[in-house]
Amino acid sequence: MRGSSRLVAAAFTFALIWAGLSPALAAPPDGTMAIGVHVTLVSRWLDPAETEALITPFMVLYALHDGLVKPMPGGINTPSLAESWTVSKDGITYEFVLRKGAKFHNGDPVTAEDVKFSYERYKGSGAGLLREKVKDVQVVAPNRVRFVLKEAWPDFMSFYGTSATGAGWIVPKKYVEKVGDDGFKKSPVGAGPYKFVSFNPGVELVLEAFPEYWRKAPSVKRLVMRSIPDEATRAASVRTGEVDIAYLFTGPTAEQLRRAPGMKVVAPLVYGVYWLDFLDQWDPKSPWHDRRVRLAASLAIDRPALNQAEMLGMGKLTGAFVPSTFEFALPIEPPPLDPRRAKQLLAEAGYPNGFDAGDLTPLPPYTSLAEEVGGFLGGIGIRTRVRTMERATFLSSWREKKIKGLLIGATGAAGNAAARLEPFFTKGGIYAYGSLPEIDDLFQRQAKELDRKQREAHLHHIQRIVSDRVLVAPLFQQGFIWGVGPRVEVAAAGLIQGYPYVGPAEDLKLR
Length: 511
Description:
CATH superfamily of the largest domain: Dipeptide-binding Protein, Domain 3
Number of helices: 16
CATH class of the largest domain: Alpha Beta
Number of strands: 20
Largest sheet: 7 strands, mixed
CATH architecture of the largest domain: Roll
Structural class: alpha+beta
Oligomer: single chain
Helix content: 25-40%
Strand content: 15-25%
Number of domains: 3
Shape: globular
Strand order of the largest sheet: 8-9-10-1-11-18-12
């Protein structure tokens, strides 16, 4: 959407907000906090075993479940269900001591058997790599579990103890074996600060405080997550009090919310880097196979304008795929806006009049971002049409390599440079449409390298290849804009570095 059409949409959004649109549901009762979610809630997010290489599922996991170790305000690897862990001198063995008194919502204690079971049933992002590296999981005692690697792998905690995967999030073995995987999704039992009450797929998830949570009893007694994919409706819902917090607003809507009485706008800088992906570059017959064409597309994009339009300028411009705060990240400046050079590159590649690039499919709900990027590409003759998909369909299609043309991707998962690169640029990566032998070789070498400087050199080399070959065109690191209503005393925004959602959920407070 460009020019007048976007202005019309923005005006419509403002009208809904300022008109005081009547909410579809009543304001939350005392002790209940409602959150307006920007995506369609799906049942697989209730089970850590199916976690994608994206941050979105953790919106649910941080409330309902708990991990042995996870990103928290104390750091990226904060002891949680495990109170401590040790690593053998040879880097082969990791032994975790479970926290005394930690229990699941059904009253069962969290044991080493649950940890082993949760790891063995895990089939989400990174599962193949973990199976490749982990030789055995041993129950040493009811409160002690040992992971034995096939060889030293310095990235183990980056994959197991962060949101790079869901492998370290623990479910109750006895209960899952009793009800089965499908039964668990219908009525999950976790070890997090909130326990399951009800779920209406695509509509609403209702959770209730678990007063025996080991870290502390939640102050908010009931937490409700409501799917409100439409931005205008989401803005109206937080404005009128139907929800107390609402996620993800673009610049114009956020500015209007900021001016509304009693409203606050917050925008934690998250680990979510957004990029334009040239899915067809692995096809020798595609124009995108030519690096000059990919570079032309990157040079045509006005990144500061995107940052202003989408995030009121609160994002961070970058030319890197890996966030700068990650371990082993290589800082890379964003490419300059240079449409003249872009047109010259297209002519050199044999496309002086541009070409029809087909579909441009964004990660939902980032349609306006795709329309803006499509407009910049159109300015140099690369013609696209924005294709929108429901989020669950998009993610499965992306994973199954069914999307063609161009894609706007994003991931906000934590970890280090290796964890960020693996799903997208290595052979067998969950979202990788192809890979370069040079990158695959470097990735395997860094995974075995115990010398930190050598590991850094290998990972910097991979990031330089991604940039120099223009395998993707990074757009920005996101400032994730929330609207926060007047009933909220503590919104728990930005307490966990790089995390976009409420977290820790038990820190929420109402006035």
